[in-house]
Write a structure and sequence with these properties.
It is built from 6 helices and no strands. It is mostly helical. It folds into 2 domains: about 40 residues, no CATH class; about 55 residues, Orthogonal Bundle (Serum Albumin, Chain A, Domain 1). α2 runs antiparallel to α3. The longest helix is centred in the last third of the chain and has 16 residues.
């Protein structure tokens, strides 16, 4: 039997599906594949590096962006929030208000 997963999931995967799901999959695969090397510790370590649990944990909220940029809600807002969220999860952007504002302004300038 060939192993289902040979590497630990990414931070984004852990964030998206949850650490508990990845740990359950890891345990399940290890019970059916005796050659599988558990990634439980790697999964736990990566999960601990993720600074937010949900988008609501971002220190910059959509309503603040709407007010600042004086725009109506739309695709632009969803894309901006998605980008900020992703960069915070991956660790390339700090979850502090000043840093998030700076990045939001950069993203707005790109469009």
């Amino acid at each position: 039997m060939q192993s289902v997963r040979t590497h630990a999931p990414s931070k984004k995967e852990i964030y998206t599906y949850g650490v508990h799901v990845h740990l359950q999959v890891d345990r399940l695969v290890s019970t059916v594949d005796e050659q599988f090397t558990s990634k439980e510790e790697q999964i736990k370590q990566l999960a601990n590096l993720i600074p937010i649990e949900t988008r609501k944990d971002l220190l910059l909220q959509p309503r603040e962006l709407l007010t600042h940029f004086q725009r109506t809600p739309g695709r632009w807002l969803g894309l901006m929030m998605e980008r900020l969220e992703s960069e915070v999860v991956e660790g390339t952007l700090k979850n502090d208000k000043q840093t998030l504002w700076q990045r939001a302004k950069e993203l707005d300038d790109e469009n």
